[in-house]
Amino acid sequence: MVSSDGDEPLTPAGRLFLRPEMNTIIHCVVGLQHPPDLDLIKSIVSSSFMVQHPRFTSLLVRDHRGTEHWRKTKIDIDRHVILVDHPLTNDVDDSRAVNDYVAELSVSTPLSTDKPLWELHVLPAHKCVVLRIHHALGDGISLMSLFLASCRRAADPEALPSMGISSDRKRSRSSGWRNWREILLGFVKMVVFSLVFAAEFVLKLWISDRKTPISGGADVELWPRKLATARFSLEDMKAVKKAVADRLDAKHMFSVLVVLSILYCSIEVKQISHCISHKRAFSCSLSTSMEVGHGNTSHKRTINDVLFGVVSSGLSRYLDYRSPNALPNGFQLTGLAMVNLREQPGLQELCDLMKSNTGSEWGNKFGMLLLPVYYHKTGGNPLDYLKRAKAMIDRKKQSLEAHFSYNIGDFLMSWFGPKVACMLNYRIVCNTSFTISNVIGPLEEITVAGVPVTYVRANTSSLPHALTMHMTSYAGKADMQILVAKDIIPDPEFLAKCFEDALPELKEAALSTKI
């Protein structure tokens, strides 16, 4: 039973994700230590924040002009919780069986609009559940926050999971400015980089990446899919980040000491000359007091730097395998990276996401960055991939490219409607080579209704890209779901191995390279 009273219009981003060309569903696979019980799952869902949230209890309706609205309705849990009570295949590898199941859902099974746009598939034979949520309901940060609100820490059953960084981004940003020169330089860089990257973004409407063995294109979103998982250790990523940062700090200190030595020697020579000129005995004293600061943000590495270094190295390995000697060194492929625009960079407390005055309101609040990745033949210094990724990401961070893409999309949706906005967005996707996103998950092991969670993985349904990558971290691990158009990339497991092999190679190079 539904009522037209109090219908709420969709956000511009929500309307975009409902267009046929960009119809996007998020799939979140949660692995469990024990097979899930259907009745227990229904009980958890019935008492969860999810069924209290207006987005998850509303139907999608259209008025006489075709404009989409949310309309409150009553939830029938039995229609949303779907039991798959048989093994998907005879394959002993649960991960591969579940990946094949999700890949099939990505192209062949849309969500029904006669109920709220979410489902929960329960797979006892494979000890996992698959949560399907339409992207119009929210982005990865919103949905991860909602999921974690129903979980507890494995080490403390009464405590909620750690939900990300709580420091105030604005305050930490402002504390970095030390004088007006840095403020002026930062402003100039922001303006220059923003103009350059905004121009590149607009040009991508007409300029396409050169075709390679991983290129997609128009209508590729309809092609059959395969899904593979690349597994990483966050400790390895942090080790790479720390080793490279320490090397740069040491080099920085070494250069400072060299300068000080030269300065000391020049002062000493002047003092000696002064003593000799005055026919004084060679018994002069020199007292020097100098404060040296280091460790500025220019030398810091982040996990994203390492991730994009791994992606660049892994793609180069894969392209070498698929088309040896076909691409020149330095050949550029362009990806689309999704960036969270909320003020707090980590996961958001659910109550904050529900408040409109916090800057962290519920829904889709992310921008897009053009992410250039450069092909280089294997055999060189693995750290070169990381250095290029770091230099590129530093420039992106200093620009407003992600805010530009978000606000332009919002403007187009508001003034020209979803058809025009979708056409332009679709062209940018078709003219680039891949999509990548990274969502931070819980920092420690968690449980759902007392059942330990073994992994958390996410991906979206098909896009015109032949390659989409979504990484989610959980308790010191990071799993990247690699969804491909299997007629273009028939071997995603090998591609996943290319990414997995790149990280230890980066780690070995970072730890062994001498200063």
Automatic annotation (TrEMBL):
The keyword Acyltransferase applies. Residues 362-507 form the O-acyltransferase WSD1 C-terminal domain. It is a single-pass membrane protein. It catalyses: a long chain fatty alcohol + a fatty acyl-CoA = a long-chain alcohol wax ester + CoA; an acyl-CoA + a 1,2-diacyl-sn-glycerol = a triacyl-sn-glycerol + CoA. It is found in: Cell membrane; Endoplasmic reticulum membrane. Residues 53-243 form the O-acyltransferase WSD1-like N-terminal domain. InterPro entries: O-acyltransferase_WSD1-like, O-acyltransferase_WSD1_C, O-acyltransferase_WSD1_N. SUPFAM superfamilies: CoA-dependent acyltransferases. The keyword Transferase applies. Keywords: Acyltransferase, Endoplasmic reticulum, Transferase. Pfam families: WS_DGAT_C (PF06974), WS_DGAT_cat (PF03007). Pathway: Lipid metabolism; Glycerolipid metabolism; triacylglycerol biosynthesis. In the N-terminal section; belongs to the long-chain O-acyltransferase family. PANTHER family: O-ACYLTRANSFERASE (WSD1-LIKE) FAMILY PROTEIN (PTHR31650), O-ACYLTRANSFERASE WSD1-LIKE ISOFORM X1 (PTHR31650:SF41). This is Diacylglycerol O-acyltransferase. It comes from Xanthoceras sorbifolium.
